[in-house]
């Protein structure tokens, strides 16, 4: 078996990608066509008269061209039947439809309810072929890491009974097919093998993978990540892989998934696929059935064939479809992924032609990443180019044909039958068996007997020795077998540990990425919060300003509102006003006080002057003394008076005039 698994590199055979073309019928005979059929393998593309750019006629060759009259059966027979034969030989196959939106890709792969396309026909053919050689359900189980486990028939039966009980409560699975099929079957299948079929259905929407069979109950499909298994095959982590036992069951699952697929109404197609969808069939072959119809499963390898049907979303020029918003985003994502596919194929071809070693950017898009294995020799690749021959589609058809030209130049390694190691699981036994018990039950055969050699009975002794030799030889043979089994188990265990380790590492990396993303988002959130606060403050200020301005313009000053903003300014202004008022009051008070003082002083002086006059009038003898006293009093009061301003000066002048009068009176008195 090891020989089967290992590949001898020297014997590597290359195979080109098979490219077919299918022409969609024109709506009516009056419609102009830009595609002419030259031969069953050649078409010519003619530039329509009304085209702005004049281009020469171009010829394109395909493996086969299906005209608008070709039936779904014809397409199936030529394209899919050989892939099914490969599938039964444990070889992988990839079939994808490519073309402009509305050119008939979904029609070719899925078809209509009563006129099925390639995919339903394939499912039917598989079940027609394995009819009597189906394994009981749940004997082979997906390990959710692209591998399989095998359990014994009793455990499988118990699980199946449980499922039946459950499904009876809910709904009956495996409805009848909506069409009657002709019973096509693969002729050459290994009739001694037992088979079982698994299906998955995923879509790639806006470069994210979603599981269309996910029935976990959440309304929104959860995104999935791509992983590499222990044999370097790409797979969708945690994808729901369902074991189906009839074509009806598989078709029902497909329909359920198709309802979840993102479709949309565009100008060019009422039911346009907005995502790339991949329906995957895995046919698992287990062991051989002997003459008495007993399954021998001790080979430890499963023969697994995989067939992937890819319905690519159509390339579209947004100015033609007039898409906007969400549809525009979808369209650009579709075009980007198709561009990546084209890019990868171009580099692959360039590497093969020039013998160069340029890195192929499979990781650029999920679409190319998931099919990396196929382009690296993991299986047979086929493509159907769908074309709508209307003159309006000329430009886009030209791009599609160029892509087809590149694709059919690409060579991939011819696929080989795939054998995958599996893990045997035995629930009932494993639960009871402790490691100690296992050691106890491990025996190399019949117990070594105790023999006693009797020299007197030589014949008996010789017979005993013969018997012992026989037992020992059988034990030796058994021990060799056991050792081999042990080595095998050890190898499997190692592989399992390696894959668990890989899984663990991938999880760690993923966790780290998620953590980084989370921290980044947290920082961003914090920044946005601060900015929001700032903006809120700014907004409040602007609002206040606006209110104050509105207030100023709309209401008279006496009725103006005191808003939050002008309140503050008013407060400060009020404060200023109050200080100014205080100053003014102080000033007034000082002024009054000064005036008051001046008045009292003047009154005092007047009083003194009056008294002096009276004295002068009453006594002539004391005139000189009185005059002296008057002089001193006058000087004193004048000094005081000089400190006063303005009005007080008048008083001084008045007192001087009084003084002059007095002097004159005195002089008159003396002369007399
Ligand atoms: N060969 C054909 N014969 C008859 N009808 C066809 C054929 N090809 C396509 N059609 C019809 O044309 C319409 C558009 O086809 P379809 O949905 O398969 O296009 P598509 O390429 O998958 O488009 P999109 O990329 O937008 O999903 C459908 O109504 C389909 O029935």
TrEMBL record:
It comes from Nicrophorus vespilloides (Boreal carrion beetle). Residues 547-568 are annotated as: Disordered. Keywords: ATP-binding, Coiled coil, Cytoplasm, Cytoskeleton, Microtubule, Motor protein, Nucleotide-binding. The lineage of its organism: Eukaryota, Metazoa, Ecdysozoa, Arthropoda, Hexapoda. PROSITE patterns: KINESIN_MOTOR_1, KINESIN_MOTOR_2. Residues 559-568 have a biased composition (Basic and acidic residues). Pfam families: Kinesin. Residues 16-410 form the Kinesin motor domain. InterPro entries: Kinesin-like_fam, Kinesin_motor_CS, Kinesin_motor_dom, Kinesin_motor_dom_sf, P-loop_NTPase. Gene3D superfamilies: Kinesin motor domain (3.40.850.10). It is found in: Cytoplasm, Cytoskeleton. This is Kinesin-like protein. Its main location: cytoplasm. Residues 511-538 form a coiled coil. Belongs to the TRAFAC class myosin-kinesin ATPase superfamily. Kinesin family. It comes from the Eukaryota. ATP binds at residues 99-106. PANTHER family: KINESIN-LIKE PROTEIN KIF23 (PTHR24115:SF600), KINESIN-RELATED (PTHR24115).
